[in-house]
Amino acid sequence: MQYYTEEMILNRQFLNLAKNMKATRPHQILCGGITEVYYQDKVLYVSVVLDTYSRKILAYYVSDYEGAPLIIDTIDKLNVFENDCIFHSYLKFPYYKLDVEEILETKNLIQSFEDRQGIQKGKSSPCTYLTSFFSSFKCECIYYGIPNPRTISKKVMIEAICKYMSYYNLERMHSSLNYATPDAFEKNILKS
Q1: Other CB atoms closer than 10 Å to residue 33's CB: what's the count?
Q2: Closest listed residue to residue 74, CA positions, set 132, 35, 42
Q3: Collapsing DSSP states into helix, strand and coil, what is residue 186?
Q4: pTM of the predicted protein model
Q5: Which domains does the chain have, with CATH numbers?
Q6: Where are the beta strands (DSSP E) in the chain?
Q7: How many other C-beta atoms are found inside a 10 Å radius of the C-beta of residue 105?
Q8: Beta bridge partners of 50
Q9: DSSP of 10-25
Q10: Tell me: the pLDDT tens digits for 124-167?
């Protein structure tokens, strides 16, 4: 794996291509992120790519390890996109590794990062959609969906995560999508 040196990082422009931009069609701005899920005395990392227009989870991956391989495995599940599709994430270590940049290029995704000062109060960002998803995911799947997440097995936790991702895309309605599911909303837009 290739890494950026400190000098490369300091001299590199980490552009926020999605700043003050809101998606107007599916597959225009995607957002990637990772969250932790605890079971027994262990942790699983859930990596997700979300379409900010339809709120649909386009890819996810569950792993025992956090880092570039987790992100790469998640992105690898994506289709190849049009040339103007932005992949936005927080400016965190695994996302600015050269390996991640290379796989994004193979999918025709343009890399974009949240500004270093983060999301400003009153401003919207693609990362706010992902933060909202992770909040719903943890409340609905982990905290209320599993009787006692600290005592279940890894297999049961992964099954619950997979089931929730399917539920989220195919059954969970969103007021922001006129009470449609992400999958139905996307299909309706792409059909018209």
Answers
A1: 23
A2: 35
A3: helix
A4: 0.86
A5: 6-191 (3.30.420.10)
A6: 29-39, 42-51, 57-63, 85-89, 109-113
A7: 11
A8: 31, 57
A9: HHS----TTTT---SS
A10: 677 889 999 999 999 999 988 887 878 899 999 999 999 999 99
